[in-house]
Structures are given as structure tokens and as C-alpha cells.
Specification:
- By secondary structure, the chain is an all-alpha fold.
- The chain is built from seven helices and no strands.
- The longest helix is centred in the last third of the chain and has 25 residues.
Length: 176
């Protein structure tokens, strides 16, 4: 990794951390699902998925989770990590289908669904009951809606911010 790539990864990681911490300060506006958030840091992650190779994206995700956990606590980390790992894995697999079969927005929607699935799976495991999974239909709907919004935002950033657009073009040659 050259210096420019290191700086880019550091900037994206710090932006994701700041967005995650900021969002943790905002009260949840979903009464049916305490703690549910839009996932602003995922906007940075979707940019990373389309402008960096997978090794760098995974490194960034791990750093983001660990640094954010220092500010939000270990209990939040467990749920965030479960959702983030499952979500990133699902988005990676979807991206393998190629741009003719799935768009950035579609990949982001899949990420929103699997993030919630990962969080509920760990909650079910920790609670020792599968009844936690009864939240899945509600959380899936809002997770996919958030994924759609994040995907649209990511698309706009890629189209309108020239340095990101250039990295997208470079990395997307490998995607096609």
C-alpha cells in the first residue's frame, strides 16, 4: 500500500468512526426497536467497498469497529461487529455478481438486511432464545430502507466527488 492509499484508508476509517460515534449520541426514533439507527458509517463503508480492494475494506471495518467501541462500549461492539461482519460478507458476495446483475444500491440494501440479521442472531445467542428473531421482519424493512438511502448517498458521492469517482473507475475495472 502506498502513502496515498494509506491516507485514503485512514480518512475513510476516521470518517466512519466519527459518523458512528455521532450517530450513537442521537436518540433512537424507532419506538419499536430501541437502539435502531440509520447506520451513517455505512455510507463510508459502501464508498470503501467500491474504491478499495477487499483486504483494505476488511482492515478498515475492523479498525472502525474497534475504535468506535472505545467510545460506545463493549456491549455495543458485540452487536455492531456481528452485523458488520455478516453485512460486509453478504455485500462482498453480491458484488461478485457484477454490475450487470446488481447495482451499488442493491448491494447496500442487501447489506442493510444482513446487518440486522447479524445483530439479531447475536442477540438471540446471548439471550438464549430465538424469540428475539421476531423483530426481523420490522428491522429488515427499516434496514433495507436505510440500505437504500445509504446506497443512493454512496452513488451520489461517487458521481459528484472527483477523487472518489476516479478511485471507483480504477477499482470497478476489476469488478466488471
Amino acid at each position: 500500500m502506498n502513502v496515498k492509499e494509506n491516507i485514503y484508508v485512514a480518512l475513510l476509517t476516521s470518517a466512519a468512526v466519527v459518523m458512528g460515534i455521532f450517530e450513537s449520541w442521537i436518540p433512537s426514533f424507532f419506538a419499536f426497536a430501541p437502539g435502531a439507527k440509520v447506520g451513517l458509517a455505512n455510507l463510508v463503508m459502501i464508498i470503501a467497498i467500491f474504491t478499495l480492494n477487499w483486504r483494505k475494506v476488511w482492515t478498515m471495518q475492523i479498525l472502525r469497529l474497534l475504535i468506535t467501541a472505545l467510545f460506545t462500549g463493549f456491549s455495543v461492539f458485540i452487536y455492531s461487529a456481528a452485523g458488520a461482519v455478516l453485512s460486509l460478507l453478504a455485500m462482498y458476495l453480491m458484488k461478485q455478481l457484477g454490475p450487470r446483475r446488481v447495482s451499488l444500491i442493491g448491494i447496500s440494501v442487501v447489506g442493510g438486511f444482513f446487518h440486522n440479521l447479524g445483530q439479531l442472531a447475536i442477540a438471540s445467542l446471548l439471550a438464549g432464545t430465538s424469540t428475539v428473531l421476531l423483530y426481523l421482519p420490522w428491522l429488515s424493512f427499516f434496514g433495507m430502507l436505510a440500505g437504500f438511502a445509504i446506497g443512493v448517498g454512496g452513488n451520489q458521492l461517487i458521481q459528484r466527488v472527483e477523487p472518489i469517482q476516479l478511485l471507483f473507475i480504477k477499482e470497478s475495472k476489476k469488478w466488471t
